[in-house]
Write a structure and sequence with these properties.
Elements lengths: L2 E9 L3 H10 L5 E3 L11 E8 L5 H11 L4 E8 L2 H4 L9 E3 L2 E4 L12 E4 L12 H11 L6 E5 L5 H9 L4 E5 L3 H13 L6 E4 L10 E7 L2 H13 L1 E13 L3 H9 L3 E9 L2 E8 L2
Length: 284
């Protein structure tokens, strides 16, 4: 079976912006830096995308990065080597984020007391916990009371909604994404984690939803959060919370202000690797 390997070499100072651009474009990728076995040149970070052979795919990767104003050197090749086909799996091991543990299907993990195990495979959608923005949301979720209903906007692989449903067996909710592939992956992963009966996933726009939710996740870019602030704020029920992530620290004040103007007060923040997540609360 042939498959394609696309590598984007970017300056290490632009690596986070590049990762967000690829993720929001629906691409899963492997990061290579000076800490990994396969090292890029000094001062550079390699983002590697695997997929079926597609002549247009390298240009798509380049366009996503150019749209984020990230200069990149793109290379690609097609291989039939079966060892290459599964080599990316070596980079994904069980990953702990607080009480949550993300376990790929090919790994074995013995849960500890209090663990919430998420059976999620890295693959066609973003959000398996490898990025700081997802980890920050999970850390904030761990400190919140159980919601009756939750909403995950820009659900990617469904990790946040699935984590909420597994952590709180009485909770149910809705997951939405503009990418139909992300919706399909969310449904697959919800089934793998035995919560498919409590998560409805679709491409419905957030503004089309009539329901108000006790807890809303929005792990998307700061600019998109600001644009969607009216619709997202309207989905937060009285006494409810919005966990907003995908925000660089220097962008956080503008995002918080956009939601403060719509009745959501800043309750807490968490930072990691230059990224910030906001816990925004609506009063009762």
């Amino acid at each position: 079976m042939s498959y394609q390997v696309i590598t984007a070499l970017v300056d290490e100072t632009a690596a986070e912006e590049a990762e967000v651009a690829l993720a929001l474009g629906g691409l899963a990728f492997e990061r290579r830096d000076r800490s990994t076995l396969d090292k890029p040149p000094v001062g550079r970070v390699g983002l590697v995308v695997y997929g079926e052979p597609d002549e247009s795919a390298p240009a798509r990767v380049g366009a996503l990065l150019a749209g984020a104003n990230v200069a990149a050197e793109i290379s690609a090749f097609v291989t039939d080597d079966e060892s290459w086909r599964d080599s990316w799996k070596a980079w994904f091991k069980p990953r702990r984020i607080g009480r949550f543990v993300i376990v790929p299907s090919w790994e074995r993990y013995a849960p500890e007391a209090g663990d919430v195990v998420l059976d999620l495979d890295p693959g066609r959608a973003f959000g398996t916990g490898g990025h700081a923005s997802t980890r920050l949301c999970l850390a904030l979720l761990d400190g919140l009371p159980a919601p009756r209903r939750f909403l995950d906007v820009g659900c990617g692989c469904g990790v946040l909604g699935i984590a909420c449903a597994k952590h709180h067996p009485s909770s149910s909710g809705v997951a939405i994404d503009v990418d139909p592939e992300a919706v399909a992956v969310t449904l697959e992963n919800a089934g793998q984690n035995a919560v498919a009966d409590r998560i409805a996933a679709s491409t419905a726009p957030v503004a089309s939803l009539a329901e108000a939710f006790d807890l809303v996740f929005a792990n998307i870019q700061a600019e998109v959060l600001i644009d969607l602030a009216p619709s997202l704020a309207a989905r937060v029920a009285p006494g409810g919370a919005l966990l907003a992530s995908g925000i660089l620290v220097e962008q956080a004040d503008a995002v918080a202000a956009a939601f403060a103007a719509r009745g959501l007060a800043l309750a807490a923040v968490r930072d990691e690797e230059g990224w910030r997540a906001l816990h925004l609360a609506r009063g009762t």
